[in-house]
Design a protein that fits this description.
CATH class: Mainly Beta
Number of helices: 1
CATH superfamily: Hexapeptide repeat proteins
Number of strands: 20
Number of domains: 1
Largest sheet: 12 strands, parallel
Strand content: 35-45%
Shape: globular
Distance between the termini: 9 Å
Low-confidence stretches: none
CATH topology: UDP N-Acetylglucosamine Acyltransferase, domain 1
Helix content: 10-25%
């Protein structure tokens, strides 16, 4: 049984193929799609607005997803959110990698195929074009991802899909 909690009448919708670690918490109006994963220590707290995690996306250890009123949080398909990242009231489009300890704030939009470097802080309302390499505090677009880097982003999501299946089996 996934550690999920109803809040204010909203119960998380977790696809049967999703992996949710026993130490993760999924709360309120949250949706985890097919083959998505929430690893150990993850908090998906949809107590003020909806949060959705797309198919094949992974939330690595200690990730926090939260939303504010008027700022739902949407993580697209095949997205990797690295350890200890905070994704707050924003949109992350498909095939992105959010680096370890990165922070993405309300109203930001991360274009598909982008890589947000470890430790970067994407400020409120920032719109990142597709296939961008983004780094810094505050985060800035440094350049377009190479084809090789983009393949690495996709490989990471595929690897975590396999890893999640192994962890799901371990906890069955």
């Amino acid at each position: 049984m996934a550690p999920s909690y109803t809040f204010a009448g909203d119960t998380p919708a977790i696809h049967e193929s999703a992996f949710v670690a026993p130490t993760a918490s999924i709360i309120g109006k949250a949706t985890l799609a097919q083959d998505s994963s929430a690893f150990y220590g993850v908090s998906v707290r949809a107590d003020t607005s909806a949060i959705s995690v797309g198919a094949g996306s992974n939330l690595q250890d200690n990730v926090v997803l939260h939303a504010d009123p008027g700022f739902p949080c949407r993580v697209g398909e095949r997205v990797s959110v690295g350890h200890s990242a905070v994704v707050h009231g924003c949109t992350v489009e498909d095939d992105c990698l959010i680096g370890m300890s990165a922070t993405i704030l309300n109203g930001a939009v991360i274009g598909s195929g982008s890589l947000i470097a470890a430790g970067a802080v994407v400020l409120e309302g920032t719109v990142i074009p597709p296939r961008s390499l983004v780094a810094g505090v505050p985060a800035k677009v440094r350049r377009e991802l190479t084809d090789e880097e983009f393949e690495g982003v996709k490989h990471n999501a595929a690897h975590y899909k396999e890893l999640a299946a192994a962890h799901r089996d371990m906890h069955a």
